[in-house]
Write a structure and sequence with these properties.
single chain
C-alpha cells in the first residue's frame, strides 16, 4: 500500500508508538542482560527499545534504521553519550562480524521483505555467547485495536481483508519465530508473550490516530471516500467495548523470541 514505510515519528507515536514503550521495557527485563554490554537495536524506529536498553547500564547502544526521520526522532528521544545511530538495512547490517553482545529488534522484523536474511545478519553480528532477540505484534488476534478495526473494515468492504496484518504477517507467532531463530543457528531458543493494556480515553482517542495516513490501517482509511470513512467510523463506534466513563479498555499482545549465539 505504500503506507507501511514508517517515516514520521509523531504519526507512529499517536498510532502504536505509545503502546510500544511498555512492551519494550518488559522485553528488556525478560532478556536480563548484565550491565556493560554492547547492544544493537535493528529497526530502532523513534527509539522506544533503545531507551529501554539504556536502563541496563550498557557500554553502548547502537540504533540502525532505514528511515532518516525515525533516526532523527531516536536521537532526540534517546540520544546521549551511550548511544549512536546509523542508517542501514536489516538485511545488510553496517557492522563487522561478532560486534555486539546483544542484538535486538522491536516491532520491525515483519516489515523486512526477507526476514530470514535479516535474522542471518543478526547471527553474524552477535558475539559468541551473545543473545539475539525480537518481538512483533500478535496481529492475528492479540492486537485488539487493530483486530476491531479490520473486522469492521472487512464487514463493509471485503477487499479490506487483503490489507489486514493478521492475514499478511503469519510469521508473528511463536512457531514461525522459533523456526527463524533455529534456522539461523541460535541455540536455547525461547519464546514468550508480552501483553500490555491499551486504554483509550474515548472514541476520538481511538479513532484519530487512524487518520494519520501512516501504517496499513491508517493508509486504508486515507484511501476511502468521506462517506466510506464515516460508515467505518460509525460501525467501529457501535462495536468497541466502551465503559460508562467513555473509555475503551483493550489489550495489545506481542510475541518475543530469543536465542544464544
Amino acid at each position: 500500500m505504500g503506507h507501511e514505510v514508517w517515516e514520521v515519528g509523531d504519526a507512529y507515536e499517536a498510532y502504536v508508538g505509545r503502546w510500544s514503550r511498555p512492551v519494550a521495557h518488559q522485553f528488556v527485563a525478560w532478556l536480563a542482560v548484565p550491565a556493560g554490554r554492547s547492544w544493537l537495536d535493528v529497526g530502532c524506529g523513534p527509539g522506544a527499545l533503545t531507551t529501554a536498553a539504556l536502563t541496563t547500564g550498557p557500554a553502548r547502544v547502537t540504533g540502525v534504521d532505514r528511515s532518516w526521520g525515525f533516526l532523527s526522532d531516536a536521537r532526540t528521544r534517546s540520544g546521549g553519550p551511550l548511544t549512536g545511530f546509523a542508517a542501514g538495512d536489516a538485511r545488510a547490517l553496517p557492522a563487522p562480524d561478532g560486534r555486539f553482545d546483544v542484538v535486538v529488534s522491536g516491532l520491525a522484523l515483519n516489515f523486512v521483505p526477507e526476514p530470514r536474511r535479516a535474522v542471518a545478519e543478526f547471527a553474524r553480528v552477535t558475539a559468541p555467547g551473545g543473545v539475539a532477540a525480537t518481538y512483533v505484534w500478535d496481529y492475528g488476534d492479540g492486537m485488539a485495536m487493530m483486530r476491531h478495526f479490520w473486522d469492521a473494515a472487512g464487514a463493509l468492504d471485503p477487499m479490506a481483508t487483503s490489507f489486514d496484518e493478521g492475514r499478511r504477517f503469519s510469521m508473528c507467532a511463536p512457531g514461525p519465530l522459533t523456526e527463524l531463530w533455529a534456522g539461523a543457528g541460535f541455540g536455547a531458543v525461547r519464546t514468550r508473550s508480552i501483553e500490555v493494556p491499551t486504554v483509550f480515553a474515548d472514541f476520538a482517542d481511538y479513532w484519530q490516530p487512524f487518520l494519520g495516513g501512516q501504517g496499513a490501517a491508517p493508509g486504508y482509511v486515507q484511501s476511502l471516500t468521506g462517506r466510506q470513512r464515516a460508515a467505518l467510523r460509525d460501525l467501529l463506534r457501535s462495536r468497541l467495548p466502551t465503559g460508562p466513563d467513555g473509555a475503551i479498555r483493550l489489550t495489545a499482545r506481542a510475541w518475543a523470541v530469543r536465542g544464544m549465539r
